[in-house]
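In the current project phase, our protein records have gained a structure token line. A sample record follows, to show the layout:
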Amino acid sequence: MVKALRASPQIVRLLLGIFALVLAGVAFGAAQPASAQVLPAADPTPTPTEAAETQSIGVWVRVAADKSNIPGVTVKVTGPKSFTASATTGDDGRATVEVPRPGTYKVVVDTETLPAGKGKVLGENLRDVEVDAGNEGVPAYYLLGDGAATPVPGSSSTSSPGSSDSSPGFAEVVFPRIATGLIFGLLLALASVGVSLIYGTTGLNNFAHGELVTFGGLVGYVVSGIGHLPGWLGIVLALVIGGAFGYLQDLGLWKPLRKKGVGLIPLMIVSIGLSLALRYIFQFAFGPGLLVTPSDSSSFLSLGPVHLRFMDVVSPIICIVVLLGVAYMLLRTRVGKATRAVSDNRSLAAATGINVERVIRIVWVGGGALAGLSGALIGYYQPVNWETGASILLLIFAAVTLCGLGTAFGALVGSLVIGLLVDLSTIFIPSNMKFVAALAVMIIILIFRPQGILGRKDRIG
């Protein structure tokens, strides 16, 4: 054993790296403060499934202007089977209400308990929160400000004859989903382009790429949610640290395996193992609950029936700027041309004097940076947890496969198509099945055009 380790310093570096990750997870997990929980009302007849799993709603009340927390606010939760519970926010402005079973719950802030001079609830006060089995801390985020509060639907101030029975029209149903689908597609594109470039230069289907996305989301949460630092700093750090994480992965794991001539199938199995290891390190450090990155949930831009928050406007702009930068790099710079050469024919590129290993290293750094940025922005789009990247990994592969493996521009187009399909499909199917439409499209494309819509036949396999 000792001789083997001496003969393989790469193995030593890999073991030390994994050991450092575990120690970091232990230290971070030990540093997390215990959060108080509000016990739910007793359920007289819980089923075995309900008793085995717990789920909860996390309410956070803050002031929009300075992001200060509001303690002493009463929130009420009602749900299936006449469930009713209430809780009061603590010094951190948060309250947790455990619910007995999955379902849709209504959350409302008792406006009489709001402190004077802090403003009114921005947006709708009465909110529907969908809770799945085992989901803890499903967010209900309230901001106070000087704007007028949206009255509770059905109250005397909003009701008019016949208005309670009116159903939303075509525009109210479709246009908001198109907007959110395009936003999600751009966020997905950041991660998909990295997967496509890595596959193009190395031939590796990296199943651990989702954990790079999760890593970026957790970095953004730590900076803004725990450190209470500006959101832009979390986005920048997720970009930089994500790139560093990609560099370390290639240096400590993938480069040594390439030098040893390990085949693509074993490499793919290694990536699955790395994915599982990182996923459970994240769970150990941050817990299984959902983590909410603070953001302003009030309406920032309204275009007819489409109402967008500030980050819903900023995130697509960031994505477009970064993706244009990637396109310029691939088309106009020497590094980009070398990357495309290695992707087309690695042996020929090496024969013409291109440093293939250097190109692959740059691609890993870029792929990690894009995934980290994607994760940080997803943290503003929806809550993150230890398996955020794993939950969208199949969507990433579907987007890459849709327009051809190894084509960065195809990954962008495929991501936009998948994002639209995912959100528009919720018109016809339940929201917890929305990924089915995207995966069905991927299967159909593979049957009728295995190389993808924009791919070439010589890229098959």
